[in-house]
Design goal:
This protein is α/β, with parallel strands linked by helices and 270 residues long. It folds into two domains: 123 residues, NIF3 (NGG1p interacting factor 3)-like (Udp-n-acetylmuramoylalanyl-d-glutamate--2,6- Diaminopimelate Ligase, Chain: A, domain 1, 3-Layer(aba) Sandwich), CATH 3.40.1390.30; 117 residues, 3-Layer(aba) Sandwich (Udp-n-acetylmuramoylalanyl-d-glutamate--2,6- Diaminopimelate Ligase, Chain: A, domain 1), CATH 3.40.1390.30. Helix content is 34%, strand content 24%. The strands form two sheets. The chain has a six-stranded mixed beta sheet. A hairpin with a 7-residue loop joins strand 5 and strand 6. The relative contact order is 0.16.
């Protein structure tokens, strides 16, 4: 069976309902034709022009991303500026753009569950539960099978995320076992992680004040970067989508963008 864009949107709604998204967020369909037949999906963390061009070259009908292309209401479209340039080219090439963002972060089997599994955590719980939905919420917290020290955990995190560098708050030899994970920008959950008994919070975009708060609360931080903490988990989720396609009897392929990179890079010698 060859599904339509509407079928795909219905599947994503089943996995990560829109009602779970943050009020400021805008997941779901960004541009497209709900009746469009879908034979291939191209996934990338961000809806960049490069990602759209790669979608076209892959002969895919959907660019599926984690971050939305449109966050706020659009009063006009400038086709030579972001996001109008991408919207215009998506329309020209008959490519639909679909996003699963904070709804996928908090959902069962979503970004943070995948991160917890990637880190080998056991007895995983929701770090900051959703007000009305049991079993979902921001972040996850669980235990490593055996204690380790912060330095060796940081090395393992860097390798698992494929990150070029990481940042640490805490002492290398500190013993850690209970671990909290938050994909993307999770510094605001530092106190929640400490309150859950976590020895360390793994996240991205750790700011100065979150680092100071962590030190005062006695919890270590591992900053793997916004890009890498989300990209790694999102790629795994997209691989899992193949199982959903098979269950639905869909003849749909999915390809992950191998060229996407962190827009923020470290430099030396300046």
């Amino acid at each position: 069976m060859i599904p339509t864009l509407e079928d795909f949107l219905r599947l994503i709604e089943h996995i990560a309902p829109m009602r779970l998204a943050e009020p400021w967020d805008n997941p779901g369909l960004q541009i497209g034709d709900s009746g469009q037949k879908i034979k291939k999906i191209f996934s990338s963390l961000d809806p960049t022009l490069d990602a759209l061009m790669n979608t076209s070259e892959a002969n895919a009908q959907i660019l599926f991303t984690h971050h939305p292309l449109i966050f706020k209401s659009v009063s006009h479209i400038e086709i030579n500026a972001y996001p109008g340039k991408i919207l215009a080219r998506a329309a020209q090439r008959h490519i639909s753009v679909v996003t699963a963002h904070t709804n996928l972060d908090v959902a069962k089997g979503g970004i943070n569950d995948i991160l917890a599994n990637l880190m080998g955590l056991q007895n995983v719980e929701v770090l900051q539960p959703h007000d009305k939905e049991p079993g979902v919420g921001l972040g996850r917290v669980g235990n490593l099978p055996e204690p380790t020290d912060l330095y060796n955990l940081a090395k393992a995190v860097k390798k698992k995320l494929g990150a070029d560098h990481i940042r640490l708050v805490g002492q290398n030899k500190d013993s850690v076992r209970r671990i909290a994970v938050v994909g993307g920008s999770g510094g605001s959950l530092t106190s929640s992680a400490a309150g859950s008994g976590a020895d360390v919070l793994i996240t991205g975009d750790v700011g100065h004040h979150a680092a100071l708060e962590a030190k005062s609360l006695g919890i270590a931080l591992i900053d793997g970067g916004h890009f890498h903490t989300e990209k790694t988990a999102f790629n795994i989720f997209c691989k899992h989508l193949e199982d959903f396609f098979r269950k639905e009897g869909w003849e749909v392929g999915i390809e992950t963008d191998s060229t996407q990179g962190d827009p923020i890079r470290m430099t030396s010698g300046m």
